[in-house]
Predict the 3D structure of the following.
Amino acid sequence: MKKYISSIILVLVVCLSLVGTTLGESNIVDSMDFQDKGVSLSLSEAIDEIMKDSPTIKKAQFDLEQAEVDYDKYRSALRKARKSVNTDKKDTASYLQSVSLLELTGEYGLDNAKRNYEATVEKLKADIEEAYYRLLQAQQLEEINKVNVEITKDLHEKTKKKFELGLIAKQEVINSELSLIKAENDYKSAQNTVKNAKMLLNVKLGNDIMTELELKDELKYREFKLDSIADAISKALANRNEIKAAEFGYELAKLNFKITEKKYTGNTYAYKEQKVKSEKAEKDFKDAKKNIEMEVRMNYLDVLQKQEEIKAGEKSVELAEEALRLSQLSYDVGMSVLTDVQKAQTALLQAKLGLSKAILDYNLAVLKFEDSIGVGRTSMSSGAGTQGM
């Protein structure tokens, strides 16, 4: 009897395991085709979507709320500190260490949390914007390669007819067929690139990987009015998180050195050590400003360069289209050979691909420039040392 019951239990365990496995795998799409009617998204809607449910945003929000709690504690501690020292003598070591140091670190803590939250938002937005733009470009490249297949097919048909009429050698037909095979392979590769870009955007949005996406926006050149370079740098120096952190580090080091001066003479190790720390913090602050200025200038140049590349790309496409048209006409009347048309066709394809990349690069460069004059995308630690000597 016991053996019989054990057998039944074993069968039930196996069955439940199979059911569990089946349920666990029920959501896996056994296809590389995207599912359902699709989610229609503009770029702004995609950003709104990620802001609602992002764990990263929630963590940054929690850190900000904690900083607000800590700020209230700091205000309470500051009131107690002011009662414990002589507030008429603000230049004493006791006041500097008990009150001034607390004021500096307490105010910075909340301000830093606010900027970190903004930087986290900007970084997430930048990730979504880049993924969205890259999918748009992948779709554009797919369409460019599709048109190239159609042109190649048309040329192949013309070549076969010419061969049937005895106007060209068999080798030209073979060459045109090889070109068609390559064009079709390039088109399939472009389709796979779209799938990869779509899956990546789905992951970033928190969707199922094989969710169909329909993008409302287009990848196109949008004119961006640049500030004067001086204005852009001024905004960056006033806004960037890295500058604020370096400035706090410098002010903290200066205050600690001031406290040390009250306690130790110039020939002591403690004095010399704190003086070096203060000098280093000052250099770090100056270097931070130089680095941010250089970054803004480089991003500024990058946007200008990408604008020129788009203008050159548009002209290249225009000229390549005309060159292909003339080459096809010449080939039709027997005044040129197949390779002339193929060269013109390749030139047009490369021009279109180049223009598409230039537009993508330009849009990404604009985003990068805009971020570089705001708070930036980098969160800064608030764990700087706060102890006076």
